[in-house]
Amino acid sequence: MSTIAALTVTEPGKLVVEERPWPICGPGEVLVAPRRVGICGTDYHIFEGNQPFLQYPRVMGHELAVDVVEAPEGSRIELGATYIVNPYVSCGTCVACRKGKPNCCTSIAVLGVHRDGGMARLLTLPATNLVPADGLGVDECAMVEFLAIGAHAVRRAAVSSDDKVLVVGAGPIGLGTALFAALSGGQVTVMDRDQQRLEAAQRLIPRITLLLASDVDRLRADASEGFDAVFDATGSRASIENGFQFVAHGGRYALVSIVKGHINFVDADFHRKEMTLLGCRNAVRVDFERVIAAVKAGDAKARDWITHRTTLQDATRDLPHWAANKTGLIKAIINMD
Length: 337
Prior knowledge:
Number of strands: 18
Strand content: 25-35%
CATH superfamily of the largest domain: Medium-chain alcohol dehydrogenases, catalytic domain
Number of domains: 2
Helix content: 25-40%
Shape: globular
Structural class: alpha/beta
CATH architecture of the largest domain: Alpha-Beta Complex
Radius of gyration: 20 Å
Largest sheet: 7 strands, mixed
Order of helices and strands: EEEHEEEEHEEEHEHEHEHEHEHEHEHE
Distance between the termini: 23 Å
CATH topology of the largest domain: Quinone Oxidoreductase, Chain A, domain 1
């Protein structure tokens, strides 16, 4: 049987390109050839050994642009065409799936996390997890998934033109959240500790206010009544707990990032404000479609988010370097062509 090359994390801190068996499609599955693979914070955490509930070895990669090699007979999947991948494989029958929320399926399997992902020459996945590229370029296709997470959070928080919005954390997920909050009409402030990330935010998202985390007094002065919608995308327990104070009376607090353990807040303050606390996990098809429409309209200039590139072979050197030194890094991609 033939083999394929795959980039594998064999254990925390160890990356190798190895030969793996040629993947065989199961019922309802497609065989695809990844063209571009975005590297996200989850991938860095897996490499570093900081991702819970993960078994090694693991082929990472869930931000994918793929070409179809093999499709189920009678399906509408076009052989040779480029598709975006929705990497959240759901059961379709649990309480969440029945309510149209496969993003929080009780037995969800995320490509590159719970099952092997797209840092390989070939990959099988359910045909239903392919999203038509709808005219997007291959680089743009690889940007859709992570932007959809921000779009999902903004939709969950129902941001409108009446809202003052605070996004804490100017990493890729926070920037995506800020972008779609701005596109939804919100008056958006982005706060981060890193001046360079804030400068990237200004370049990628026009008409937003930037604020260093050290200048919290200015934040309180600019929004004395608080923010109608606050999003945390830091992955920091201290930041999440601190964010409750910035929510206006009657406002919403959306946690886009996740941390281990408990989050503490003052219950009396929470009730006094009649605050709505939202957990935001992954994205669903409508969020992917929202991003695709924004890219096509020129509102989300997806290619501009790419700051670093590598190949499958060179990723064994580059990914560990970027995990340790994220200076100037917004989005890195692996070119699989």
